[in-house]
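Good morning C.,

I know you're traveling, so I'll keep this short. The sequence:
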Amino acid sequence: MSLYRALITVSLALVGGIHLAAGDDAAWLREKGTLLFEDSFDREEDGNLAKAIGNGWNSATADRVPDVKQADLDGGVLKVINEPRAGHQPHIHHEAGLEDGGATFRFRFPDAGKAATLTVGFVDRQTPGVHAGHLCYALISTKPPQITLSDYKTGVMNLELRKRRQEYLDRKEKLPDDLAALLATKSKSFPWKADGKWHDLVLVTEGDEMRVTLDGKPVGSHHSEGFAHPTKRWFSFLMNPSAWIDDVKVYRVK
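The C-alpha coordinates, ready to paste straight into the viewer:
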Protein backbone atom coordinates (compact mmCIF):
# COMPACT_ATOMS: atom_id res chain seq x y z
CA MET A 1 0.00 0.00 0.00
CA SER A 2 1.26 3.48 -0.85
CA LEU A 3 2.10 5.97 1.91
CA TYR A 4 -0.83 8.11 0.77
CA ARG A 5 -3.25 5.20 1.03
CA ALA A 6 -1.85 4.32 4.44
CA LEU A 7 -2.42 7.86 5.67
CA ILE A 8 -6.02 8.14 4.46
CA THR A 9 -6.95 4.67 5.65
CA VAL A 10 -7.72 6.10 9.06
CA SER A 11 -9.78 3.25 10.46
CA LEU A 12 -11.46 -0.04 9.81
CA ALA A 13 -15.21 -0.30 10.15
CA LEU A 14 -16.92 -3.62 10.76
CA VAL A 15 -20.18 -3.56 8.79
CA GLY A 16 -22.18 -6.75 8.51
CA GLY A 17 -19.08 -8.79 9.22
CA ILE A 18 -17.12 -7.11 6.40
CA HIS A 19 -14.03 -5.00 7.07
CA LEU A 20 -14.03 -1.78 5.08
CA ALA A 21 -11.13 0.62 4.69
CA ALA A 22 -12.21 4.17 5.45
CA GLY A 23 -9.95 5.78 2.86
CA ASP A 24 -11.32 8.42 0.47
CA ASP A 25 -10.88 6.89 -2.98
CA ALA A 26 -12.36 9.91 -4.76
CA ALA A 27 -9.65 12.08 -3.19
CA TRP A 28 -7.02 9.46 -4.03
CA LEU A 29 -8.01 9.64 -7.71
CA ARG A 30 -8.12 13.44 -7.80
CA GLU A 31 -4.91 14.06 -5.88
CA LYS A 32 -2.70 11.21 -7.06
CA GLY A 33 -4.23 10.46 -10.46
CA THR A 34 -4.17 11.88 -13.97
CA LEU A 35 -7.59 12.66 -15.41
CA LEU A 36 -7.81 10.64 -18.64
CA PHE A 37 -11.23 11.89 -19.73
CA GLU A 38 -14.50 13.26 -18.42
CA ASP A 39 -18.00 13.67 -19.79
CA SER A 40 -21.14 15.42 -18.58
CA PHE A 41 -23.08 14.54 -21.78
CA ASP A 42 -24.20 18.14 -22.41
CA ARG A 43 -24.89 17.66 -26.12
CA GLU A 44 -27.10 15.76 -28.55
CA GLU A 45 -26.23 12.36 -29.96
CA ASP A 46 -25.55 12.04 -33.69
CA GLY A 47 -27.81 9.23 -34.85
CA ASN A 48 -28.00 5.68 -33.52
CA LEU A 49 -24.77 4.00 -34.61
CA ALA A 50 -21.66 2.96 -32.71
CA LYS A 51 -20.07 6.42 -32.34
CA ALA A 52 -23.29 8.42 -32.03
CA ILE A 53 -22.73 9.33 -28.36
CA GLY A 54 -19.61 11.28 -29.32
CA ASN A 55 -16.62 12.40 -27.23
CA GLY A 56 -14.79 9.13 -27.86
CA TRP A 57 -17.54 6.73 -26.73
CA ASN A 58 -18.33 3.66 -28.76
CA SER A 59 -21.16 1.14 -28.56
CA ALA A 60 -20.26 -2.46 -29.33
CA THR A 61 -23.94 -3.28 -29.93
CA ALA A 62 -25.48 -0.21 -31.60
CA ASP A 63 -24.76 -1.25 -35.19
CA ARG A 64 -26.74 -4.47 -34.67
CA VAL A 65 -29.97 -2.46 -34.52
CA PRO A 66 -29.25 0.74 -36.47
CA ASP A 67 -32.91 1.79 -36.47
CA VAL A 68 -33.16 1.83 -32.65
CA LYS A 69 -31.87 4.54 -30.32
CA GLN A 70 -30.38 2.60 -27.41
CA ALA A 71 -28.40 5.59 -26.12
CA ASP A 72 -30.14 8.95 -25.73
CA LEU A 73 -28.43 12.15 -24.58
CA ASP A 74 -31.27 13.95 -22.87
CA GLY A 75 -30.85 17.00 -20.65
CA GLY A 76 -27.18 16.34 -20.02
CA VAL A 77 -27.75 12.69 -19.10
CA LEU A 78 -26.81 9.49 -20.95
CA LYS A 79 -29.97 7.34 -20.92
CA VAL A 80 -29.47 3.79 -22.15
CA ILE A 81 -32.06 1.10 -22.76
CA ASN A 82 -31.57 -2.48 -23.87
CA GLU A 83 -32.98 -3.49 -27.24
CA PRO A 84 -33.57 -7.29 -27.22
CA ARG A 85 -33.08 -7.53 -30.99
CA ALA A 86 -29.41 -6.60 -30.51
CA GLY A 87 -28.87 -9.99 -28.85
CA HIS A 88 -26.71 -8.41 -26.14
CA GLN A 89 -27.21 -5.75 -23.51
CA PRO A 90 -25.79 -2.36 -24.55
CA HIS A 91 -22.01 -2.29 -24.18
CA ILE A 92 -20.73 1.30 -24.18
CA HIS A 93 -17.03 1.91 -23.78
CA HIS A 94 -14.30 4.56 -23.93
CA GLU A 95 -10.54 4.30 -24.31
CA ALA A 96 -8.84 4.44 -20.92
CA GLY A 97 -5.40 2.87 -20.43
CA LEU A 98 -4.48 2.36 -16.79
CA GLU A 99 -3.18 -0.21 -14.33
CA ASP A 100 -4.15 1.42 -11.03
CA GLY A 101 -6.85 4.07 -10.95
CA GLY A 102 -10.56 4.12 -11.57
CA ALA A 103 -13.66 6.18 -12.20
CA THR A 104 -16.25 8.39 -10.57
CA PHE A 105 -19.74 8.84 -11.99
CA ARG A 106 -23.41 9.29 -11.16
CA PHE A 107 -26.06 6.70 -11.97
CA ARG A 108 -29.78 6.15 -11.63
CA PHE A 109 -32.16 3.28 -12.34
CA PRO A 110 -35.25 4.92 -13.88
CA ASP A 111 -37.50 1.92 -13.13
CA ALA A 112 -36.33 1.07 -9.64
CA GLY A 113 -39.26 -1.23 -8.96
CA LYS A 114 -38.08 -3.60 -11.67
CA ALA A 115 -35.04 -5.86 -11.80
CA ALA A 116 -32.13 -3.98 -13.37
CA THR A 117 -28.37 -4.23 -13.51
CA LEU A 118 -25.62 -1.74 -14.32
CA THR A 119 -22.24 -3.33 -14.95
CA VAL A 120 -19.21 -1.03 -14.94
CA GLY A 121 -15.53 -1.83 -15.24
CA PHE A 122 -12.61 -2.53 -17.53
CA VAL A 123 -11.84 -4.40 -20.74
CA ASP A 124 -8.70 -5.30 -22.68
CA ARG A 125 -9.55 -6.91 -26.01
CA GLN A 126 -5.84 -7.63 -26.56
CA THR A 127 -5.70 -10.07 -23.63
CA PRO A 128 -5.43 -13.70 -24.82
CA GLY A 129 -7.38 -16.41 -23.09
CA VAL A 130 -10.20 -14.10 -21.94
CA HIS A 131 -13.58 -13.90 -23.66
CA ALA A 132 -13.98 -10.47 -25.33
CA GLY A 133 -11.28 -9.10 -23.04
CA HIS A 134 -13.60 -8.77 -20.04
CA LEU A 135 -11.34 -8.08 -17.05
CA CYS A 136 -13.13 -6.84 -13.94
CA TYR A 137 -16.41 -5.23 -13.04
CA ALA A 138 -18.76 -3.93 -10.40
CA LEU A 139 -22.28 -5.23 -10.98
CA ILE A 140 -24.91 -2.98 -9.42
CA SER A 141 -28.28 -4.74 -9.24
CA THR A 142 -31.69 -3.85 -7.83
CA LYS A 143 -33.01 -7.41 -7.36
CA PRO A 144 -31.27 -8.57 -5.32
CA PRO A 145 -30.09 -5.13 -4.10
CA GLN A 146 -26.36 -5.71 -4.10
CA ILE A 147 -23.07 -4.56 -5.61
CA THR A 148 -20.77 -7.37 -6.70
CA LEU A 149 -17.05 -6.90 -7.39
CA SER A 150 -15.98 -9.56 -9.85
CA ASP A 151 -12.70 -10.71 -11.40
CA TYR A 152 -13.74 -11.93 -14.86
CA LYS A 153 -10.21 -12.35 -16.18
CA THR A 154 -9.38 -15.32 -13.95
CA GLY A 155 -13.03 -16.23 -13.37
CA VAL A 156 -16.08 -16.69 -15.57
CA MET A 157 -14.53 -15.11 -18.71
CA ASN A 158 -11.34 -17.17 -18.62
CA LEU A 159 -11.76 -19.24 -21.78
CA GLU A 160 -10.87 -22.58 -20.22
CA LEU A 161 -13.10 -22.04 -17.19
CA ARG A 162 -15.86 -20.59 -19.36
CA LYS A 163 -15.88 -23.63 -21.63
CA ARG A 164 -15.94 -26.03 -18.72
CA ARG A 165 -18.67 -24.09 -16.92
CA GLN A 166 -20.83 -23.81 -20.03
CA GLU A 167 -20.96 -27.57 -20.46
CA TYR A 168 -22.72 -27.90 -17.10
CA LEU A 169 -24.96 -24.91 -17.75
CA ASP A 170 -26.07 -26.35 -21.08
CA ARG A 171 -26.99 -29.61 -19.37
CA LYS A 172 -28.62 -27.65 -16.50
CA GLU A 173 -26.41 -29.50 -14.07
CA LYS A 174 -24.79 -28.35 -10.87
CA LEU A 175 -21.19 -27.20 -11.24
CA PRO A 176 -18.62 -29.61 -9.81
CA ASP A 177 -17.44 -28.64 -6.36
CA ASP A 178 -13.93 -27.64 -7.41
CA LEU A 179 -15.15 -25.31 -10.17
CA ALA A 180 -17.86 -23.78 -8.01
CA ALA A 181 -15.37 -23.21 -5.20
CA LEU A 182 -12.86 -21.55 -7.56
CA LEU A 183 -15.43 -19.22 -9.13
CA ALA A 184 -16.75 -18.30 -5.68
CA THR A 185 -13.36 -16.77 -4.84
CA LYS A 186 -13.55 -14.43 -7.83
CA SER A 187 -16.51 -12.31 -6.64
CA LYS A 188 -17.77 -10.68 -3.49
CA SER A 189 -21.17 -9.02 -2.98
CA PHE A 190 -22.28 -6.20 -0.69
CA PRO A 191 -25.80 -4.94 0.03
CA TRP A 192 -27.09 -1.51 -0.92
CA LYS A 193 -30.46 0.22 -0.74
CA ALA A 194 -31.69 0.13 -4.32
CA ASP A 195 -34.02 2.94 -5.41
CA GLY A 196 -34.72 5.29 -8.28
CA LYS A 197 -32.56 8.15 -6.99
CA TRP A 198 -29.27 9.48 -8.31
CA HIS A 199 -26.18 8.00 -6.66
CA ASP A 200 -22.46 8.84 -6.79
CA LEU A 201 -20.17 5.84 -7.26
CA VAL A 202 -16.40 5.52 -7.11
CA LEU A 203 -14.78 2.37 -8.49
CA VAL A 204 -11.03 1.83 -8.22
CA THR A 205 -8.43 -0.86 -8.71
CA GLU A 206 -5.11 -0.79 -6.86
CA GLY A 207 -2.91 -3.82 -7.32
CA ASP A 208 -5.02 -6.93 -6.88
CA GLU A 209 -7.75 -5.02 -5.03
CA MET A 210 -10.99 -3.52 -6.35
CA ARG A 211 -12.93 -1.08 -4.14
CA VAL A 212 -16.32 0.57 -4.43
CA THR A 213 -17.69 3.66 -2.69
CA LEU A 214 -21.34 4.77 -2.88
CA ASP A 215 -22.47 8.28 -1.98
CA GLY A 216 -19.22 8.96 -0.14
CA LYS A 217 -19.30 5.80 1.97
CA PRO A 218 -17.03 2.76 1.39
CA VAL A 219 -19.19 -0.23 0.43
CA GLY A 220 -16.62 -2.98 0.10
CA SER A 221 -13.46 -4.33 -1.47
CA HIS A 222 -12.21 -7.60 -2.88
CA HIS A 223 -8.80 -9.05 -3.71
CA SER A 224 -8.27 -11.20 -6.80
CA GLU A 225 -5.37 -11.52 -9.22
CA GLY A 226 -7.30 -10.38 -12.29
CA PHE A 227 -7.82 -6.91 -10.79
CA ALA A 228 -4.07 -6.32 -11.20
CA HIS A 229 -4.18 -6.62 -15.00
CA PRO A 230 -1.57 -4.10 -16.18
CA THR A 231 -3.45 -2.58 -19.13
CA LYS A 232 -7.11 -1.73 -18.66
CA ARG A 233 -7.64 -0.34 -22.16
CA TRP A 234 -11.38 0.36 -22.05
CA PHE A 235 -13.70 1.74 -19.42
CA SER A 236 -17.15 0.30 -20.08
CA PHE A 237 -20.81 0.22 -19.09
CA LEU A 238 -23.39 -2.50 -19.70
CA MET A 239 -27.07 -1.94 -18.86
CA ASN A 240 -30.00 -4.30 -18.55
CA PRO A 241 -32.63 -3.18 -19.19
CA SER A 242 -31.96 0.50 -18.52
CA ALA A 243 -29.75 2.92 -16.58
CA TRP A 244 -28.91 6.61 -16.65
CA ILE A 245 -25.31 7.89 -16.40
CA ASP A 246 -23.80 11.33 -15.82
CA ASP A 247 -20.60 13.14 -14.79
CA VAL A 248 -18.10 10.42 -15.70
CA LYS A 249 -14.43 10.94 -14.83
CA VAL A 250 -11.73 8.30 -15.36
CA TYR A 251 -8.29 8.58 -13.76
CA ARG A 252 -4.96 6.79 -14.05
CA VAL A 253 -2.88 6.60 -10.88
CA LYS A 254 -0.42 4.13 -12.40
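Safe travels,
E.
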